[in-house]
Write a structure and sequence with these properties.
By secondary structure, this protein is α/β, with parallel strands linked by helices. It folds into 2 domains: 266 residues, Aldehyde Dehydrogenase, Chain A, domain 1; 182 residues, Aldehyde Dehydrogenase, Chain A, domain 2, CATH 3.40.309.10. Bound molecules: nicotinamide-adenine-dinucleotide.
Length: 505
């Protein structure tokens, strides 16, 4: 995370100042402002991150355009081999990367290890490019005429990413973009720049042609420069719904290919026949893992009929048993949220829900002098769909419970949200599952799974305000997003060929 305090670029301090990675070299951005990067568990300053300018971004674009020319002519097999080497290096550095994720973002070490595991799976999925990038051909579309569609890289592709998955989310894009022959510019979250800084040190060891991968640290100014730069062909965004819209509209206006994954409000429907202990486990992981700062976090439980009374007691008891603290400590289940300001914002949501008539089943607020980022699991019961806490993305360890009489009513509640990222249903009834997966308006659905985040080999994304675009992240959609189709219709005039060599047909 970062403080809002800005330092002068020449501030004398022994705190490390990060650099950009452009054209195969580490380089200090010109006249950049600096932000302190804090450990959210201890508030210790970990580093200072430069906030680059549009001119700094343009240097990366020039390098990426040069890198693209070289890289696109390497065979997909050679490109895949680079990814195999990247995979091996990431596997050997996985624990260090997980520690960096915990230190700068706050999630627990097991959670960070799982994130790094998913990051590595993205590289594994991208190594299939010699197969997945193949085109299609149809002979004889007319007499002696063949038609074929080939896939070519799009060009220079940029990704703008959020704070909550410093390792994995950039890798929803980078391995697939370069596997398909594009060059790539990453703008990490200025709140958590350290993990990708280390990843780019690893990428540097692979000796890719200069400009194939570039890292430009910064904030909204770099994002605007990405949207404005004519040298960038495609933009991927992950973050809040508000910024997703800015990026989607800006990129589309400039004629760029764009996919923008936004915020979420994920519902978990619990039917009366759900297996309660497993359901409690699933909800706890979903609502309180990563302190609720996942785009797939379960944020609202919708209990149907008798499910409410069966669930609420065991759920509250289990939530109260989760230990809150520094994610590097072994028995901690819930780490800090990203910043003191985020904690204050989340506590505000809880208080306003209580003021609106909801009932606090578990209160994780810790009070104090405001100089900490800890808030424990919090459960608010008696929430109604019209309340602010039922509608807004809280992005903290806060779970609302809404009660419904029937599955149809539950589906109506879920579908009334402006978001449609992920959702889950807990039940043993195949008929209820069939109805739910058919009618629910969300891009990712879990059946007795609390966090139904698709693995690397499948596409990931939501619907409605959770996603603007058409091609989703990773899986088969990644190859679609990162390639342009070119269709060639061809014929040859064999009657003019040398009849002596061809013979009679
Ligand atoms: P954010 O929108 O504040 O920031 C995301 C990126 O946009 C950052 O790199 C940031 O520098 C940049 N940015 C911020 N404000 C900007 C502005 N005004 N103009 C241009 N760029 C700007 O998001 P965050 O707080 O870092 O991350 C949390 C959000 O991300 C949550 O809403 C969460 O649901 C969402 N998220 C969604 C998914 C998904 O798959 N849909 C995945 C992870 C996170």
């Amino acid at each position: 995370m970062t403080t809002t305090t800005q330092s002068a670029p020449n501030a004398t301090s022994d705190v490390r100042v990060l650099e950009n990675y452009v054209g195969g070299e580490w380089t200090a951005p010109s006249g950049a402002r600096l932000l302190d990067v804090l450990n959210p568990a201890t508030q210790e300053v970990l580093a200072r991150v430069p906030l680059s300018t549009a001119a700094d971004l343009e240097k990366a674009v020039e390098a990426a355009r040069a890198g693209f020319k070289v890289w696109r002519s390497r065979s997909p097999i050679a490109r895949a081999k680079v990814l195999f080497r990247l995979r091996e290096r990431l596997v050997s550095e996985a624990d260090e990367l997980a520690r960096l994720v915990t230190t700068e973002m706050g999630k627990t070490l097991p959670d960070a290890r799982a994130e790094v595991g998913r990051m590595i799976e993205m590289v594994e999925a991208a190594t299939a490019v010699p197969t997945t990038m193949q085109g299609r051909v149809l002979e004889d579309v007319a007499t002696n005429v063949d038609c074929e569609t080939i896939r070519q890289p799009v060009g220079v592709c940029a990704a703008i990413v959020p704070f909550n998955f410093p390792a994995m989310v950039p890798f929803w894009f980078l391995p697939f973009a370069i596997a398909t022959g594009n060059s790539f510019i990453l703008k990490p979250s200025e709140q958590v720049p350290l993990t990708q800084n280390r990843v780019f040190e690893i990428l540097h060891e692979l000796e890719l042609p200069p400009g194939v991968v570039n890292l430009v640290n910064g904030d909204a100014e770099v994002v605007q420069a990405i949207l404005d730069s004519p040298g960038i062909d495609a933009v991927s965004f992950v973050g809040s719904a508000r910024v997703a819209r800015i990026v989607y509209e800006g990129a589309a206006k400039a004629g760029k290919r764009v996919q923008a994954l936004g915020g979420a409000k994920n519902h978990i429907v619990v039917m009366p026949d759900a297996v309660i202990p497993k359901t409690v486990d699933g909800i706890l992981t979903s609502a309180f893992g990563a302190a609720g700062q996942r785009c797939m976090a379960g944020s609202v439980v919708v209990t149907v009929a008798e499910a409410h009374d069966a669930l609420v007691g065991p759920l509250a008891e289990a939530a109260q048993g989760l230990r809150v603290g520094n994610g590097l400590e072994s028995d901690v289940a819930v780490g800090p949220v990203i910043s003191c300001q985020a904690r204050e914002r989340i506590e505000g949501y809880v208080q306003r829900a209580v003021d609106a008539g909801a009932r606090l089943l578990v209160d994780g607020r810790r009070g104090g002098d405001g100089d900490h980022a800890f808030i424990g699991p919090t459960i608010v019961d008696g929430v109604t769909p019209d309340m602010e806490i039922a509608q807004d993305e809280v992005f903290g360890p806060v779970l609302s419970i809404i009660h419904a009489q029937t599955l149809a009513e539950a589906i109506e509640i879920v579908n009334s949200s402006r978001y449609g990222n992920g959702t889950s249903i807990f039940t043993e009834s195949g008929a209820a599952v069939r109805r739910y997966r058919h009618d629910v308006e969300a891009g990712m659905v879990g059946v007795n799974v609390g966090v139904a985040a698709p693995v690397a080999f499948f596409p990931f994304s939501g619907w409605k305000d959770s996603f603007l675009g058409d091609l989703h992240a990773h899986g088969t959609d990644a190859v679609e997003f990162y390639t342009r189709k070119k269709t060639v219709t061809s014929r040859f005039f064999s009657e003019s060929a040398d009849a002596r060599l061809f013979g009679e047909f």
